[in-house]
Amino acid sequence: MELGEQVFHFECDPSCDAENYTIIESSIVRAKDFGGYLKAQSEQHGYAVMNDPPGPVPEIIARFGIYLHWLSDRNSHWYCCDASSSGVVGVRDGSHYNLFMYLATKPCNFVHHGMVHYWEQGVSQLAPGSYYALVNLYKELKAFKTKHLSAHPEWFRPDAASKEMSFEQVVGTKQMPGILYNITNIPNAVNRFKAEMDALEAYGLPPMPGFEKMCSTSPSDQSSSLQDLIKVKLTQYQVEYSELEFEFTN
Which of 75, 72, 112, 121 is closest to 223 using CA atoms? Predict the structure, then answer.
């Protein structure tokens, strides 16, 4: 079997969410042009930009970010990724690999997706999928730093070589939970996010970009809005909410 080249961006006429649309051939961006796409987005729209040093995000960092997203999905959405019609194929492209991901339609649909996300954080104990997502993210980030720090110190904090938090500090175990283990269990979304920002500050780390200041610290129940959204979608699929709830709790 010969795999075609991956398409990761395209535009449609009249729009891609229209009932009938045509893909604009001239707007298709393929995997080999990923670096050029990042450069164009940073110059034309201010997306994918690094502040220090200024310029587009290096292609390897952007690819690594996509991989981390998939890795988290692999841990939390095992029911989708382990389905018989799902899979990943790695194809070597020079010194890098292109990942081709296939996701089965039925187990990966919105209803399953939304319901499983609901249990990932803010509950009484950390779900196994959430825990191993944290474990693997820590391992991959550490491996990335080990591989690239000496050649590309500009990608990291100035004190990255001397200041590193251990796995026990960051993740830990059920018996001896670390920072993120405890934070992920906080029920209220606003309080959970504030705890994460407080932890970064306590360890002398910068806040997440765009969240230098909390927009609101007032309590809000995020779970009820998610449940309402799920109920709307279930109605569209003509599935009873109680029926699906039974399926996921047994």
Answer: 121
Q: What is the pTM of this model?
A: 0.71
- Tell me which H or E stretch contains 101: strand 96-102
Instruction: Say if 232 falls within a structural domain.
Output: no
State the Cα–Cα distance between residues 87 and 101, nearest whole angstrom.
Answer: 6
Range of the domain at 45: 1-52
Q: Consecutive 10-residue runs of the chain (250 residues): their mean pLDDT?
A: 64 84 83 86 84 83 88 82 81 69 80 76 83 94 95 89 89 93 89 89 82 60 50 50 37
Are 209 and 144 contacting, i.e. CB atoms less than 8 angstroms apart?
A: no
Q: Within 13 A of 143's CA, how many CA atoms are on the CB side?
A: 8
Indicate the number of domains in the chain.
Answer: 1
Dist. CA 40–CA 47, nearest whole Å: 9
